[in-house]
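Our platform keeps sequence and structure together, in a single record for each protein. Because each token names a local backbone shape, the row as a whole describes the fold. One such record is reproduced below, unchanged from the form in which we store it:
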Amino acid sequence: MTLIRGIDCDAAGRCRHYHQDNDIAALRCAQCGDFFACYQCHDALCDHLFVPSPKASRAVLCGNCGVELTFAEYTQGSCPQCQHAFNPNCRVHYNRYFQA
């Protein structure tokens, strides 16, 4: 399974900043290519700020089953492979994670 980096992360990628049951979507930084629990964890752990990924790329990782998703797949609300729900409130951060 792909590693999800973050601060105080559990196995599904819930971190110090986002730790509800449905906070399981890890996001890929376009600069370093790694998956992070959130942009705050990324910015604290790396020597560069989080760079948004193209929407067509596989920039989301389901922390429950490990499948990589596009923006379109992610925004359906749950993982297409394991059906675990994603946090709907994450939409307020789409501009931080995905290129316009």
Notes: Strands lie at 4-5, 25-28, 35-36, 60-62, 68-69.
